[in-house]
């Protein structure tokens, strides 16, 4: 009787161990799929992205055809400005600029904010007051979600970085 109960206990504990391993694999698969989706999103052209954005806003804000076309143009203009900013920034970056990195980041942030403000002004001209108020609420929610995603990504990166600082026995260095 003792042997049977011992065998049953060992079987149950082994099932529990396998269940935990499976859960880890599922989480990794989920992260992998999210990463693949993000890569797919990055592969879209700016024209496709602008079309999707104008279609989405047309549905949510009840835009007419002229507003939809103007919104698409504004989005394309914004993408082109960002593309030029990034290209210029990459061309200027050298190893010598590493010490000026905080200043470079601040300048780039300021330029991105100017592009965003210009886009917002374009939107204000395209939409009526009621539509603009609804757009602004949606836009702020999207920005909040994007910021949260960035913070989660930074937290994951920090956690991965901390794992590299530990030896196999769990001690630092």
UniProtKB/TrEMBL annotation:
Leader sequence residues: 1-19
Q: Which domain of life is it from?
A: Bacteria
The cross-references to Gene3D superfamilies, in alphabetical order and at most eight, read:
1.20.120.1490
Q: Where is this region: Disordered?
A: 85-111, 146-173
Q: Which UniProt keywords apply?
A: Signal
Q: Where is the composition biased (Basic and acidic residues)?
A: 102-111
Annotated protein name in UniProt: DUF4890 domain-containing protein
Native source organism of the sequence: Gillisia hiemivivida
């Amino acid at each position: 009787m003792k042997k049977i109960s011992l065998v049953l206990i060992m079987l149950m504990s082994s099932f529990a161990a396998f269940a935990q391993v499976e859960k880890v694999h599922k989480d990794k698969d989920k992260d992998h799929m999210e990463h693949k989706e993000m890569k797919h999103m990055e592969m879209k052209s700016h024209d496709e992205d602008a079309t999707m954005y104008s279609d989405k806003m047309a549905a949510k804000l009840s835009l007419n055809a002229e507003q939809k076309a103007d919104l698409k143009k504004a989005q394309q203009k914004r993408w082109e400005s960002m593309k030029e900013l990034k290209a210029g920034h990459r061309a200027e970056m050298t190893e010598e600029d590493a010490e000026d990195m905080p200043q470079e980041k601040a300048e780039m942030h300021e330029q991105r904010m100017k592009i965003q403000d210009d886009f917002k002004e374009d939107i204000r001209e395209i939409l009526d007051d009621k539509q603009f108020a609804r757009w602004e609420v949606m836009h702020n929610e999207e920005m909040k979600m994007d910021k949260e995603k960035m913070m989660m990504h930074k937290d994951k990166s920090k956690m991965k970085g901390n794992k590299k600082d530990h030896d196999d026995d769990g001690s630092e260095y």
